[in-house]
Amino acid sequence: MAKRPRIAVVGSANIDLTTFTAQFPKPGETIFGQKFDLGFGGKGANQAVAAKLCGAEVFMVARVGSDLFGPATIKNFQNLGIDASHVRQVEGVSSGVAPIFVDPSGQNRILVVKGANDTLKAADVDEAADDLKRADCIVLQFEIPLETVYYTVHFARKNGIRCILNPAPAQLIDVKAISDLDYFVPNESEAETITGMPVRNVEDAKKCAEKLLSSGIGRVIITLGANGSLLAGREGMEHVPAFNVKAVDSTGAGDAFIGSFATFLGEGLPERDAVRRANLYAGLSTTSVGTQKSFYDRSRFDGEWAAKGRG
Questions:
Q1: Which one of 255, 273, 297, 302 is the catalytic residue?
Q2: 49 φ, ψ to 5°?
Q3: Number of separate domains in the chain
Q4: Which domain holds residue 286?
Q5: Which alpha helices (H) appear in the chain, and where do they start and end?
Q6: Global pTM?
Q7: By CB count within 10 A, which of 104, 193, 203, 286 is most buried?
Q8: Tens-place pLDDT, residues 251-295
Q9: Annotated catalytic, 297?
Q10: The domain spanning residue 158 has which CATH number?
Q11: Considering the domain boundaries, does residue 236 fall inside one?
Q12: What digits encode the pLDDT tens for the residues 201-244?
């Protein structure tokens, strides 16, 4: 039986408000959307849920607002079996929200209002230090202050804990502050924003990854949507193809990749195998609407892997 990894997610928790529309309104115009979905989200929370559903033991370090969404978010973690003892409400601040707009092809456009996520500080990481030191892996994103991200990367390295950073939403960063990372995992647009290099295909991704590696980052995985992933280290690069699925809503696919990859790697799978499985897990998440509610549990995923993952 595979080892059950313990994964800590230091990151964001939002409420996703998803609107499906055939077109987008012009300035001053009001149009009808096709349908609406409300669900729990936030990159950190999504990654925590994916890891938990894949079989990991997961705990979350996060902040939520003093509104109706705050207690509901904490309760959602608890219902899913995620340790929420380090998820706290912040008085006088809203919870994070993400209005999401999805077109008929399944592509999404997302606005993020960080709210209480922006109040997560280095002191909150120190407060959770005893639990963090027992983690096999710490997962981070960019919906919390960069200073907190940098501090947590340093904390992970100082304590010998594997650390995975998903630089989303993309922004300019101090690359030296994250050079101690084990894995830097952007998608195409995030890699392009951070490096200033276009990423339109696998060859572009290789050039971009080379630049990131030369800046001191140890290992890079660039997720490429329907083109799979590029796994890159100083010893070389490999394109890991995607699996064919019928996409309905791509929202949360990157988070599904991160959470599942952290779990598969923590179970002791070879790196490439963990990436292949994460490619499939992320692909499957696009076959239904929503973020967390679209993620497969482990038994369902294992059935799909048995059917599609051989070879």
A1: 255
A2: -65, -45
A3: 1
A4: 6-23+35-295
A5: 43-53, 69-80, 122-127, 129-132, 146-158, 188-195, 202-214, 253-266, 271-285, 298-308
A6: 0.91
A7: 286
A8: 789 999 999 999 999 999 999 999 999 999 999 999 987 788 899
A9: no
A10: 3.40.1190.20
A11: yes
A12: 999 999 999 999 998 888 999 999 999 999 999 899 999 999 98
